[in-house]
Automatic annotation (TrEMBL):
It comes from Paenibacillus piri. This is AraC family transcriptional regulator. Gene3D superfamilies: Homeodomain-like. Residues 196-294 form the HTH araC/xylS-type domain. PROSITE patterns: HTH_ARAC_FAMILY_2. One of its GO terms (molecular function) is DNA-binding transcription factor activity. Keywords: Transcription, Transcription regulation. PANTHER family: ARAC-FAMILY TRANSCRIPTIONAL REGULATOR (PTHR43436), TRANSCRIPTIONAL REGULATORY PROTEIN (PTHR43436:SF1). Pfam families: AraC_N, HTH_18.
Length: 305
């Protein structure tokens, strides 16, 4: 790691710590930019990543996408180019050296605008690529990240400069070694673009029965081709993808509403409460009631610690 990169990482880590303070996820005053601060290693956290860039200024994190594992730290950046259900865990953090992360969420339209307004030449690829990847951080990308983060110390500059610096980050990423992979989400006609449309269909109709024939039609693919490309992009089958979304939503409902497990099962699309309980236990390690009780006790212990 070069001295220039190390110096900028240290500045960014201090800036994130100053603007976040305690543990948590903080939405900054800059649209679509978040700071994450953790002073301890964490247990597995389930969630859905929106299209985003994550750069860790200090600490190490592990992300599981189905059975695929991504580990990254200050030498790397992680990109999720689509909505993906994942499991995350902070692996390296302490009160003296907390985990601090910069996160930029972006849209397919923002990628398309940068491609249209720049001279970056990328052609659609027939073979879809994994929608999550880790790349080695480069000085131009880190400089752009630092420029937009510094705006928090000059809030009057945010409305004018934040959109410019955000576009620069995306521009630098598209120029990098994974630029072709990232660009595919915005290039109509590419296999990745068509799988993205099918993913949105699943997300928007998560509580309804999954019909692969309809999804294949949305993607303009044969059923066999759709299965192959979907797994290449997401590391899982359409059924597995929907199941993870359903179970994560069920857990959220059980926590936030203290609802009955059987009622929640029906709300997220299960026809059988017993099947829901089995699959919930398989994913989270305990049946719904025991899992939610454990989570609430853990939260109460933190609050009263």
């Amino acid at each position: 790691m070069s001295e220039e990169i190390l110096k900028r990482q240290e500045e960014l880590a201090k800036l994130i710590a100053r603007h976040s303070g305690q543990d948590g996820v903080y939405q900054t005053n800059i649209p679509s930019i978040f700071f994450i601060h953790r002073s301890n290693v964490t247990r597995a956290v389930y969630g859905v990543y929106k299209p985003c860039l994550c750069f860790i200024a200090q600490g190490v994190k592990e992300i599981l996408l189905a059975q695929e594992r991504f580990e990254y730290g200050p030498a790397d950046y992680l990109i999720s180019s689509m909505n993906l259900p994942v499991i995350g865990r902070v692996m390296q953090a302490s009160s003296d050296a907390p985990y601090v992360c910069f996160k930029l969420e972006f849209t397919q339209n923002q990628i398309l605008e940068v491609l249209n307004d720049s001279e970056i030449q990328i052609t659609p690829k027939e073979n879809a690529k994994r929608a999550m990847f880790v790349g080695q951080i480069e000085l131009p990308i880190l400089d752009a990240i630092l420029r937009v983060a510094r705006l928090l110390d000059n809030p009057n500059d945010i409305p004018y400069l934040a959109p410019i610096y955000t576009r620069e980050i995306l521009y630098r990423l598209l120029q990098g070694p994974y630029g072709v992979t990232l660009a595919q989400i915005a290039m109509e006609g590419s296999s990745t673009y068509r799988i993205r449309e099918a993913i949105e269909q699943i997300i928007n109709n998560c509580d309804k029965p999954l019909r692969v024939e309809e999804l294949a039609e949305v993607a303009s693919m044969s059923i066999s081709s759709f299965h192959r490309h979907f797994k290449e992009v997401t590391a899982m089958s359409p059924i597995q993808f929907q199941k993870q979304l359903r179970l994560q939503e069920a857990r959220r409902l059980l926590l936030s509403e203290s609802a009955d497990a059987a009622d929640v099962a029906f709300r997220v699309g299960y026809e059988s409460p017993s099947q829901f309980s089995r699959e919930y236990s398989r994913m989270f390690g305990s049946p719904p009631r025991a899992d939610i009780k454990r989570l609430k006790e853990r939260y109460d212990n933190k609050v009263h610690a």
